[in-house]
Every structure is written in structure tokens, then in C-alpha cells.
Amino acid sequence: MNVVIIGLGYVGLPLAQEAARAGLRVTGLDVKQATVDGLNSGRSHVDDLTDADIATMIAQGFRATTDPAGCADPDVVVICVPTPLSESDGPDLTAVRAATHSAGTLLRPGTLVVLESTTYPGTTDEVVRPLLEKASGLTAGIGFSLAFSPERIDPGNKRYGVRNTPKVVGGLTPACTQAAADFYARVCDTVVLAKSAREAEMAKLLENTYRHVNIALVNEMAIFCHELGVDLWDAIRCAATKPFGFEAFYPGPGVGGHCIPIDPNYLSYKVRAELSYPFRFVELAQEINSRMPGYVVDRAAEILNRDAKPLNGARVLLLGVTYKKDIADQRESPARPIARKLQQRGAVLSYHDPYVQSWQVDGRDIPRAGSPAAQADLTILLQPHACYDLDAIAAAAHLLFDTRGTLSGDGVFPL
């Protein structure tokens, strides 16, 4: 089976690895020449795969290219390209359209095409299908199979990967669904059949909207619990002992990555565009979660004031600027808007992150501290990376603002 994976980022590359492991012949197609050259030279650019993993994939027959002509006669084409928000906060399907056109030029009778890029319900049928049919001259569901399968990659997760995370698939027709299920059964332990592509598309947005709304709930609770003198972290600890009807979510300095701050907006866009009314839960959650970086800066000023120091001119050290602990991914990290707001209020910034050797905010380099225990008027813990000795950091810090609820004691201020 010849498999072409379009988009070799944090979704496409782990899928390519698992497909190569399964004995399939895998070609990766990407628009970035540097990415392709790096992979063909055995270098990984994503957190979850090492250079050794890439070398093994190459030995198994994997290769990467920027030229669709080098991907002739695929049995399966999987589209794993980014779907960011447009300037109007709607879905930007530019990369999906471009990848779909490339896929269309590769189609032959019997080919399976799967979209994995997160998007709003209806995209597979309303956007991808017409482009494929026009480029190939074939009819979806008859000349070729078309399906959607939401990616479920969790960067940095050592327990769950492509193989052991259940894979949802939904096709344009029942036969398309079965064709996709047959392919994913080669690379995943469990395949879950959706009623159609629309239900599979909705499943992904439901998963991320669920998290988005619940994170917003505890973020808003963190704000008023601080004012009420309630330790929300302890309340969550207690509530989590209930063996049914409760799942623990935790507040933080904001949400990052692709899924939580972006994906639910696709659903909000679809509801507004087709039904002409707002998806109020998502829009409220977005408002609350977007507020958190500003709240963190306000609290930083409050903490410094207790020490008779103004934020203007204060030395502020940010610890952990990635969007998630123990990875290098900075997509939509709340550290950047926090840093921007601190600079606007006159703080003298530095940062430390073992995964980020240089860091810029609005094109301006932020100095990297030599140690997470470097001297500052205020240290703000944004990501408690496992390699950090948090107790030593707390002991060394003059004032420590812990936005992740990991520490306690004198001189430590929780979110």
C-alpha cells in the first residue's frame, strides 16, 4: 500500500511513523523545503519524534518531498495541514484547499483520501469533495473514497500516540467509511465508525469545546476565589475524590496550542454563518480564557505592590514559555501576550525555558536567564517543566507567582 501524507507537522509526521512501522510505503509531502531536507537527512522537527525515529523511518522506506509529482499512484492520501483562524476569526482553509488540489492531481480510480485537519462540520463534503472531483475528473464515493478522521495527537504524551488512541472515521458514504476504517486498522489498534464525515468532524470540535468551556469555568472561578480568599486548588483536589460525575480541570495563565484557543471557533463560525445566532458557550469561554494573560499581569503588579515595588522598572523572570510543559511547542502560548502586556507596563523582562534557546515577542529579543533561579524582583512560573527543581526555585525566588498551583509557602503566590 502506497500512502502519501500531506503536511509533515505534529500530526502528519507521527502518522507517517506509524504507517511506516506497519509496513506501508510512505511518502511525505510538505511545502517547506527546509522541513523536507531535514527529514531526508534524518532530523526531526517535532517534539514527539527523535532523530533516531526519523532514521528508522527512512530505513523503512519513508521519504519526504515538496513535489507532488514524486508521489505517483498512491492508494491512500491523508491531508494533515494547519487550519488557523483568519483575521476575522473564521477558519482559514487556505492550506486545506492547496493540499486538496495536490491530492486531486494524484487521484486514480480507487484511491482513498482522508482529511485529518480540524475544521467545521461540512468541510469534507462542501470544500474538499468539489476540489478533488474537479482536479481528478472522478466522482467521490464512486471513483474514489473520501473520509474525515480527526487527529487526536497530544504533543508530549508518552502514554498515548497514534497506535493506541482510538481513531474515529466517517466517510462520504458507508463504503467510504469502510475504506478509511480498513486503512486505519493497519496503523491503529481501535477504529470507531462515525455515521458520516459530518459526525466525525463534529466529534473533534466537541472534544475540544468540552475542554475549552471547562477550562474557562475554572479560570473564572480562580479570579473570584482569589477575591473571596478561597483556595481553588484545594477545592478541586477535594472535588476530584468524587468517583463519578466530576472531572478535574485546572486554571492557568491562558490556553495555548492549536486545539483549545482555535478549534471551538470553527464551530462558532459555522453556527453563526448557517443558523444566524451565536454559540454563546464558546464565545463566553473564549472571552474568559483570552482575559487570563491580562489577569496574570494585574496580579503580578499587585504582588509587587505588596513588596512596595511598582511593575514599571521591576525585573520580571518568566519560567516556561511553551504552551505546554515538557515540549518545545510555542503555538498560541499565553506567555507571549503576558510578556507583551508586562513590557507595555514597563517591566524589565527575562525568561528561562530549557526547550527554548531564544525567544522573541513582537520581533524583540527577550534575554534568556542562565538559570530558572536567577535573581528577579518577581518570578512568574508559567510552565512547571519536569526538569525544574520547583522547591529550589521557590527557595531562591524573591517573590514567586505560581500560575499552575504546584507550590506553596512563604513568598509563593497562587493564581
Keywords for this structure?
415 residues, alpha/beta, Rossmann fold, 2 domains, 8-stranded mixed beta sheet, 5-stranded parallel beta sheet, 40% helix
Question: What's the structural blueprint in terms of helices and strands?
Answer:
Layout: E1 2-6, H1 12-21, E2 25-29, H2 33-40, H3 51-59, E3 63-65, E4 76-79, H4 94-106, E5 112-115, H5 123-136, E6 145-148, E7 167-171, H6 174-184, E8 191-193, H7 197-228, H8 232-239, H9 259-275, H10 280-306, E9 315-319, H11 335-344, E10 348-352, E11 360-361, E12 364-365, E13 378-381, H12 390-396, E14 400-402, E15 412-414
Helix pairs in contact: 4-5, 7-9, 7-10, 9-10, 10-11
Describe the structure.
The mean pLDDT is 94. This protein has two domains: 2-195, Rossmann fold (3-Layer(aba) Sandwich); 220-414, Rossmann fold. It has twelve helices and 15 strands. It is globular and about 75 Å long. Helix 7 packs across helix 9 (259-275), helix 7 (197-228) runs parallel beside helix 10 and helix 9 packs antiparallel against helix 10. Helix 1 links the parallel strand 1 (2-6) and strand 2. With 415 residues, it is an alpha/beta fold. The strands form three sheets. An eight-stranded mixed sheet has the order 3-2-1-4-5-6-7-8, sandwiched between helices. Strands 10-9-13-14-15 form a five-stranded parallel sheet, with helices on one face. The chain has a two-stranded antiparallel ribbon with strand order 11-12.
